[in-house]
Design goal:
It is built from eleven helices and 13 strands. The chain is globular. Helix 11 links the parallel strand 12 and strand 13.
Length: 373
């Protein structure tokens, strides 16, 4: 049974949990807090899908045993704050100015454990070299991921109790179409989405986060790949078409879609707020549309005859001091705040008198429910 007063999930009543993580740069720290809250409540994910920074977080989650996941995520985000830690000790007379200064420092010198500027500017680099098509080098990230992810664990039997399915969204540059690399058996094509069952390696993760022209593209099997967010910035759309292929047909399914770009804050009233709202709308990649499409897809596929499906959409709320390029703001203050916000946002879901997905006891209730927080 489930203790509904605390929202803590007992192992014998755990639903099939899917965690969908968007791209959003430094705002990905929000996803860490969201995962920590889910883990604390006993909702370790069975399947994690990620794009861009979401792919990094997802790979760290899926690439470690449950006892190590939170610590490895913390390690990654502590590393990215790096050389900006000293700035947190300075008097803060204008938070917006401070954030702009931190952003400039990251752009000028890079982010520890993540990326650094190329020594040769693109116009002067040899043609067809990574430096000719990008501003930054991600060798630091390659080293960091090698340290934080247990790739042998990722390759373990995905039917084992602790294994987490992993899906990484990418954009194939030739044709500009969305594809997905996955750690488990899957149909080659599902609902016009090309899927690759592969042994996930660092290149697959880097490909999902190859945000051109900042970062270089990644060539895999003679194809050039860029950031998955260019084609679709919602990993949610990669999960829905494949739910019918999972073997957990008798379990309730709860999908936690962590939305970093939901434009539900106050109306913009300054130039900076207008710029930020434009970015929110651009990178949301029609999340609202994808969630509704997923609902109709699941219902038309008649999956509700064998399971109950609930979609829980948790939205990032902008801080009043947010700046138009806050997704590039890797500073200790902002990272800590976003982790805390993500934790609180998901925790608020479990503070309901009755968990949203537990309100439906009858399997004849055949609607796919959407819950927004």
């Amino acid at each position: 049974m489930t203790d509904t007063s605390s929202g803590t999930q007992k192992s014998n009543d755990k639903p099939y949990v899917v965690l969908a993580l968007q791209g959003g740069g430094a705002m990905g720290a929000f996803q860490v807090g969201a995962y920590n809250a889910l883990s604390e409540k006993g909702y370790e994910p069975d399947w994690v899908a990620g794009i861009s920074i979401g792919a990094i977080n997802a790979s760290i989650i899926a690439g470690n045993e449950p006892k190590n996941r939170s610590e490895r995520l913390k390690d990654f985000w502590k590393t990215t704050a790096g050389h900006l830690d000293w700035w947190e000790r300075m008097p803060n007379y204008s938070e917006r100015f401070t954030n702009l200064w931190k952003l400039w420092m990251s752009m000028a010198s890079g982010v520890p454990g993540f990326f650094r500027p190329n020594f040769i500017p693109p116009p002067f680099a040899p043609r067809n070299s990574p430096q000719a098509s990008s501003l930054y080098n991600v060798q630091r990230l390659r080293t960091t991921l090698q340290r934080l992810i247990n790739f042998d664990f990722l390759k373990s039997d995905y039917k084992s109790k602790e294994h987490v399915r992993l899906s990484l969204g990418v954009t194939r540059v030739f044709g500009g179409v969305a594809e997905v690399f996955q750690s488990f058996d899957c149909p080659e094509r599902v609902d016009d989405l090309k899927c690759h069952h592969v042994n996930i390696a660092i290149d697959h993760i880097l490909a999902s986060g190859a945000n051109a022209p900042w970062f270089p593209g990644v060539v895999i099997d003679k194809q050039l790949y860029w950031d998955g967010g260019f084609a679709s910035n919602t990993a949610f759309s990669h999960v829905i078409p494949q739910l019918s292929a999972t073997e957990f047909k008798d379990r309730r399914v709860v999908i936690f879609a962590i939305d970093l770009w939901g434009a539900y804050d106050r109306l913009p009233s300054t130039f900076e707020e207008v710029c930020w709202r434009i970015k929110q709308i651009q990178y949301s990649s029609r999340v609202q549309h994808d969630v509704k499409h997923g609902k109709h897809f699941l219902e038309s596929a008649r999956l509700h005859e064998t399971r109950l499906v609930d979609i829980v959409r948790v939205c990032y709320r902008c801080d009043p001091s947010e700046i138009p390029y806050a997704d590039g703001l890797f500073s200790r203050t902002e990272i800590d705040r976003r982790i805390a916000d993500g934790y609180a946002a998901v925790l608020s879901v479990f503070e309901q008198e009755q968990l949203p997905w537990q309100k439906r006891k009858n399997r004849n209730d055949n609607e796919v429910k959407i819950h927004s927080f």
